[in-house]
Description:
Blueprint: H1 14-39, E1 50-54, H2 59-67, E2 74-79, H3 86-89, H4 94-104, E3 112-116, H5 124-139, E4 146-151, H6 155-166, E5 172-177, H7 191-214
Parallel strand pairs: 1-2, 1-4, 2-3, 4-5
Amino acid sequence: MKLFRKREVWTPTWPTCCLIFFLIGGLCYVAVRHLYPFLAQNHPVPAAEMVIIEGWLADAELKEAAKAIRPGQIVITTGGPVTFGQKILHYENYAEMATARLIALGVPAETIVTIPAPETLRDRTYVSAQAVRLRLEQLGLFGKSANLYTIGAHARRSYLLFRSVLGENYPLGVIAVEPAYYNLNHWYRHSAGFKHVVMELVSWVYAQFFLMTHHA
Length: 216
């Protein structure tokens, strides 16, 4: 009984190894150059009647979103429970906090609809979108065109989840506000930028899987 047998194994030559190395390097370069623009999706609905703002945006990003609000637009603020400093901040959720910050930035209070999301341990954006749909239906606003304002690389995932909840035919656009804490052209050189972009890529892939299983 033979315990071993001889087998011929083909191995790549050094020119082939170099070619594979350059191909992989080229693919990585293309991915790095185009990953952020892919995730930071931008295609707003012209003359949208409503603006949906994710309430956890930092002050710099919220200020940029406030500048883009047109007179007469309905402003929707979303967000779940604040996870730190509730007693000091005096706000229980990010939707209420965003409303207060927008008013301080000059947005008329009567144009803002605050829609807090319930507490959840997972899929917070999806749950926020569900809360938005329910409240819009109650107010008779469901169906009005809207632009979703969010931050940078989070845009594609947010849009995917809101689109799933509001419906494929809903007149919904998305605007990615540029983050203030890293250089967009060199996001991979900043720890915050690298973490944000890579985590959003992973989260977007998860969201795709979650939607497929959720509607199965």
